[in-house]
Amino acid sequence: MIFITKNFKSLLIAILFGLQISFSQSFVPYYATVADQCSQTNITSNLTEYEALGLKRRGTVQLQNTLDWLKNKYLGFGYAAAQLQEYSFTYTGSTAICKNLEVTKIGTLYPTTFIIICGHYDSIGGTGTNDNGSGLVSILEIARLLKDIPTEYSIKFINFSGEEDGLKGSQNYVSSVVNATNPKMNIRLVFNLDEVGGVANLTNNTITCERDTSTPTTNNAASN
Hints:
Blueprint: H1 5-19, H2 29-35, H3 40-52, H4 61-77, E1 84-91, E2 94-105, E3 110-120, H5 129-146, E4 153-160, H6 168-178, E5 186-192
């Protein structure tokens, strides 16, 4: 499995438009400048480390080790411990405790409106190098690049667990965090990064972007 920096840059520029970085929207070259700072070395190194952590099934030491690894990454980027929040949960049919990790970066103009950049860190049947190590290291690199850049909207980087068991982590986050917030959490856009790697020796020059069209609401208009 390989990761193409060019594709990552295109993905990051799309996210920057959604964030409306606190510079003129017409100053598009600035987005490219930020994207140009992405590091293939960082991406490859993080993916190699993630793979080495092994199979990350619910209730395993490897899954907890991956969570600890993630927290250390964010802290190493300069995020404060107070910006990191763990949400523990269980679900029907399992006694294993799963944990979602949320990292919040407050926006300058709309601190209570959030852009969510998310992906899962658990795996089943293997190390999860592509599913979803590729998405996870993308989130880490985006978090690193945006750490000291002011954004109009707040950002939540969310790393889900229990997704390979039927989307349990994201479902729990919606029910226990998004809907439980008073008032309900105001979400502008969600970027869910999953399996964004490529295959060695093949042409990997595209990333597929999909929209939720099964239950369209007025909120979907923001992704047009």
